[in-house]
Design goal:
Mean pLDDT: 96
Strand order of the largest sheet: 6-7-8-3-14-13
CATH architecture of the largest domain: 2-Layer Sandwich
Low-confidence stretches: none
Number of strands: 16
Order of helices and strands: EEHEHEEHEHEEHHHEHHEEHHEEEEEH
Number of helices: 12
Length: 450
């Protein structure tokens, strides 16, 4: 699954199964000019140069640098293949005009409500709120990679180097997950059989316990509710999880399970909570791809399916720690042996019609980002310096399953929920997220600092 030059300056490689799963789900809403799971990384910044005109020009130059060093942002899809064309000067200008947009009259909130499907990744600047939004296809990058890519953009913006000469950037095109990880492209018969067993067992647990989403046939726009806790609360939270030998991801996942079960319709309340635990696989990639600053692009996450029966907080959290706390190295993790086969089978499952009378999945999906300070800097010094006040992940959500992120930055702990406006009311979405936090703090004996 390596990139090949199919004609002068035109390169292609097949999508891998990891990418195909996300691509299929994202494409379901393309006829509505929407994209499920489009990834948005939003940074609120304070730029030393106060001229919007100068900052816009510098952002344009930085965006060109991003394309040169990480050309996957300008790759398109040709059937089941990624396609990239080396641009000339005029094509670069056209691409920048299409993908770098300045929004003077709308907010980020308004943008997310109406954001359309775009062929390429895009960059958006909101001068009135001094926010930068980088929007990418989730089949081209995962959440952790999105933060790394935002760091690259802000670094290029701060340094403000001259424009690069295109032609050699194809050496930076992101390889497939299997190639980057150095894993075999053909599974053994035993691994294929295990993959089938995992899929069968996972599907047997469906439908999962879920939230009472509103019945809708056409999705609206994406909304976000966000909660924040100060440094002292974060310290208490981390100390409390350590005392229980838990990671924060497992504890948050347990609180989500319990809060979901409290609100579930009676027909689902006793079902298992079935979802996938998402892992950042970057540190397990082979060199040079384990250098995330140089190689942020790629769907280099692993999603391990799990099902949790009804239990108390600590029992569920301990069960989840067994999953989230596992070593994912290929020589120590059985899941890596069958994961590609699992993804291949899930593509077929997702492309099959949902059984008649079965409600769409509505269990929340957790993405535990963790500490972001090492991914995005608080201060960038260069020709034009800037401070990052906050940074947030948001995914476009066209479905009934709320996407929940947890992360910390500059000493503040955040929990957000990304949901479709036609699936939940603002009040219900906020009440659910507050209940997750309430369960988490209560069960761990943490008090919110004010």
């Amino acid at each position: 699954m390596s990139w090949k030059e199919v004609s002068d300056g035109s390169w292609e490689r097949p999508l891998d199964n990891n990418e195909l799963v996300v691509k299929y789900v994202g494409d379901l809403f393309k006829p509505l000019n929407k994209e499920h799971w489009a990834l948005n990384i939003i940074a609120e910044v304070t730029i030393d140069v106060v001229s919007d005109e100068e900052n816009v020009s510098a952002l344009r130059r930085a965006w060109v640098q991003v394309r040169y060093h990480h050309p996957f942002i300008a790759a398109s899809i040709n059937g089941d293949k990624h396609a990239y064309d080396v641009p000339n000067g005029a094509e670069i200008e056209s691409w920048v005009s299409e993908t770098f947009l300045v929004h003077k009259e709308i907010s980020v909130k308004d943008f997310l409500l109406t954001a359309p499907f775009r062929e390429y990744s895009s960059l958006h600047f909101f001068p009135s709120s001094s926010e930068i939004l980088m929007r990418t296809h989730h089949w081209a990058i995962d959440g952790i990679g999105g933060f790394h890519l935002m760091d690259r953009l802000l670094s290029y913006f701060s340094v403000d180097d001259p424009a690069p000469n295109f032609g050699s950037e194809t050496a930076h095109l992101a390889p497939s997950y299997l190639e980057a990880a150095g894993l075999p492209t053909t599974l053994s018969s035993a691994s294929e059989a295990k993959a089938q067993t995992i899929v069968t067992n996972y599907l047997s647990k469906m439908p999962s316990v879920g939230l009472p989403a509103q019945n809708f046939t056409v999705p609206g726009g994406t909304k976000v509710v966000k909660l924040a806790s100060p440094t002292s609360t974060l310290s208490s939270l981390l100390s409390a999880t350590r005392k229980q030998n838990l990671g924060l991801a497992a504890a948050v996942q347990s609180a989500i399970v319990l809060a979901t079960r409290e609100r579930a319709p009676a027909t689902l309340s006793k079902q298992d909570f079935s979802s996938v635990a998402l892992f950042n696989y970057r540190k397990y990639l082979k060199a040079p791809y384990n250098d995330s600053a140089a190689w942020p692009m790629g769907v280099w996450m692993v999603g391990v399916p799990f099902s949790q029966p009804e239990a108390d907080f600590i029992t569920t959290a301990k069960n989840m720690e067994d999953i989230y706390g596992q070593d994912m190295a290929s020589d120590r993790c059985e899941a890596i042996e069958w994961y590609d086969g699992f993804c291949a089978r899930m593509v077929k499952v997702l492309s099959s019609p949902m059984p008649e009378g079965v409600a769409p999945p509505s269990q929340p999906q957790l993405s535990s980002i963790g500490l972001v300070d090492g991914l995005v800097r608080i201060r960038y010094d260069g020709k034009r310096g800037l401070d990052v006040k906050s940074v947030e992940p948001v995914v476009d959500n066209m479905a009934a399953s709320m996407a929940v992120f947890q992360w910390s930055f500059a000493g503040t702990w955040y929990l957000n929920g990304c949901f479709n406006e036609n699936a939940y009311s603002d009040a219900d979405a906020e009440a659910f997220l507050k209940r997750v936090k309430e369960i988490l703090f209560s069960e761990l004996g943490v008090e919110e600092a004010h």
